[in-house]
Amino acid sequence: xxxxxxxxxxxxxxxxxxxxxxxxxxxxxxxxxxxxxxxxxxxxxxxxxxxxxxxxxxxxxxxxxxxxxxxxxxxxxxxxxxxxxxxxxxxxxxxxxxxxxxxxxxxxxxxxxxxxxxxxxxxxxxxxxxxxxxxxxxxxxxxxxxxxxxxxxxxxxxxxxxxxxxxxxxxxxxxxxxxxxxxxxxxxxxxxxxxxxxxxxxxxxxxxxxxxxxxxxxxxxxxxxxxxxxxxxxxxxxxxxxxxxxxxxxxxxxxxxxxxxxxxxxxxxxxxxxxxxxxxxxxxxxxxxxxxxxxxxxxxxxxxxxxxxxxxxxxxxxxxxxxxxxxxxxxxxxxxxxxxxxxxxxxxxxxxxxxxxxxxxxxxxxxxxxxxxxxxxxxxxxxxxxxxxxxxxxxxxxxxxxxxxxxxxxxxxxxxxxxxxxxxxxxxxxxxxxxxxxxxxxxxxxxxxxxxxxxxxxxxxxxxxx
Length: 466
Ligand code: 4AD
Ligand code: MG
Fold this sequence. Notes:
It is a single chain. The protein is elongated, with a radius of gyration of 27 Å. α3 (129-151) crosses α5 and α3 crosses α6. It has two domains: 6-99, CATH 2.40.50.140; 127-173 and 210-453, 2-Layer Sandwich (BirA Bifunctional Protein, domain 2), CATH 3.30.930. By secondary structure, it is an alpha+beta fold. The two termini are 34 Å apart. It has helices at residues 6-10, 115-119, 129-151, 213-223, 259-280, 282-291, 296-305, 313-320, 339-350, 400-409, 418-425, 438-446; strands at 16-30, 34-40, 48-53, 71-80, 88-99, 155-156, 162-163, 175-176, 206-208, 225-233, 246-255, 309-312, 354-360, 376-384, 388-395, 431-437. It has twelve helices and 16 strands. Bound molecules: 4-amino-1,4-dioxobutan-2-aminium adenosine-5'-monophosphate (4AD) and magnesium ion.
């Protein structure tokens, strides 16, 4: 029999003699005749109360070792608990200490729990209630993403992490190299003295991917509806609460979908996975509503119950121009809307999620489909309260000549994109897709306000510990 978890013990249909619980001690308190310890194994938010009574054994030798952070196996009887708020407790009969813990040095102390401090001990912070709850919700959210797409006829595909083309055309990529940069003199050079990337292990200059979209388009134009769910990397020097250098992105891509269909899918997807978390993680969600974001449940109802506003960029500009005094960057037609403008629209004006679409072409990625007006593209962003953009997507430019011209206008070398252009040569069809930032979605559902606290080991500018 594999070890039983505390979650399973607490869900036991009846009291049970002779069980063993394993985990880490959260706290222990002693009275004259008894001691009580909270044992937690991460399987659920609740800890198991363990009761040490002299009637059931002599624990005087081991008890001083059962301090916060120590790991132990406790054998005994699962009995109905007289205490409020817990169905069972464990009457200890035998204790095995796995790993002791020096309470003076253990960094996870009740008094030292600021988010900033906990980031410096990211290897131990999953032992706190809040981070364990976040990680359980993160796992459930990932599962609901797969379930949503699976149930709706999408195929899960994997796109490369090492790529030779810039999927956003924005130049914010990490180079992936096998060259020994500590020995510049020994690096292979061409006749012109430039670095010779043909000597790379993969035969050319490569990068960590910023998006799986371009390869996703190739697969959607064969399978119909696909999605990716993988790590992406941005070498953008943005030190904000919502930018990470490494994050996970979910990218559905659908053949025959136009922009309207794309927006509908995005709205339904966000609502569906939000509802799922509320349903599947009530106890962990209660922790966030109680201790992290008091308005959390209202915010989430705002997501699940309201129809998202559809707002064309040109109409957004008409709303924003009259209140330009509020903004650092003044709005006029053509200006790429920044976080301050997006948050005004979502939090002050509409007070609900907004899907902003039809952006000016100069503020958009090269692959977005040009509208007939010649100056806007069929792109869309889903904007939500507190976070701003959680989804960016578009209908894709499926006309070869228009795409080639857009790439030339944006000074993008078409050579590495030969295969992407082929998709417009052979059986091109209208198609659309979007990308959801998984960490931003987690910030939304948990109310956690910094992206550094929704990844176990965040990667942000200036930080790559662990
Ligand atoms: O808007 P983005 O850059 O769009 C794309 O990458 C498209 N290729 C997606 C597609 O159409 N298939 O990124 C999509 C989402 C953003 O809306 C945001 O939620 C998240 O990815 N994102 C980031 N999350 C954390 N840190 C960053 N630096 C992020 N950059 C984008
Ligand atoms: Mg975007």
